[in-house]
Amino acid sequence: MDLILATTNGHKIREMKSLLKPFQQFDLYSLLDFPNYVPPQETGKTFEENAILKALHAAKTFKKWAIADDSGLVVPALGGNPGVFSARYAGIGASEKENRQKLLKEMADLEGLARSAYFECCIALAAPEKVYKTVSGICEGSITTEARGGYCFGYDPIFLKHDYNQTFAELGEERKNQVSHRAKALEKLTRTLENLPDL
């Protein structure tokens, strides 16, 4: 059974393929396999709205099951920012490093609990005619005062996970995939994916 991972983000594709490896019944494709596909604009005000938008658009386009996630970093002391704007926090076309630098600058005067943050991921599973299910996962931690670790994806170098004395970047990709917000969300889809009907 074909399953479209509705993303072109290489880090997300690797993580989702790793997490979906136990599901041998799926032939996994990503949007990188369809270079002419034009994804919809992410106009949702929440992670769930954006995940649904992306999953449903891909499912309708390819007439296949599609799965999409929308995720980001939430800092309560900043009113929930970067939130749904995490990937473009420093502006459209900004680099991941520029996004991190803007966040660290805005948090320069914050200390202690004010530096608390969490990653949130919402995943939508869609058939061509409807959204089948949505799930979400959260990973709590805090923001460091400087980047740490060599594995640089998004805000990983400045996110210190609770119960660890390491940033996501220091944990490394394999360990991060076991404890991340995306892993927690996908775990909630396990039973649904195991019993997914043919289209």
Helical proportion?
A: 25-40%
Element pattern in H and E: EHEHEHEEEHHHH
The third-level CATH topology is: Maf protein
Number of continuous helical runs: 7
**What would CATH call the class?**
Alpha Beta
Instruction: Return residue spans where pLDDT drops below 50 for at least 5 consecutive residues.
Output: none
Query: Termini separation (Å)?
Result: 9 Å
Mean pLDDT: 95
Strand line-up in the sheet with most strands: 2-1-3-4-5-6
The dominant shape is globular
Using DSSP, what is the number of strands?
A: 6
CA radius of gyration: 17 Å
User: How much of the polypeptide forms β-strand, as a percent range?
Assistant: 15-25%
> Main beta sheet, described?
6 strands, mixed
What class would the helix/strand composition place it in?
A: alpha/beta
CATH architecture: Alpha-Beta Complex
Tally of individual domains? 1
List the helices and strands and how they pair.
Blueprint: E1 2-5, H1 10-19, E2 27-30, H2 47-62, E3 65-74, H3 96-106, E4 116-127, E5 130-143, E6 159-161, H4 168-171, H5 173-179, H6 181-187, H7 190-194
Parallel strand pairs: 1-2, 1-3
Antiparallel strand pairs: 3-4, 4-5, 5-6
Report a brief summary of the structure.
By secondary structure, the chain is of the alpha/beta class.
Fold and architecture overview:
It is built from seven helices and six strands. It starts with a strand and ends in a 5-residue tail after the last helix. The chain has a six-stranded mixed sheet. It is globular. The chain has 199 residues and is α/β, with parallel strands linked by helices. The chain has one domain: Maf protein (Alpha-Beta Complex).
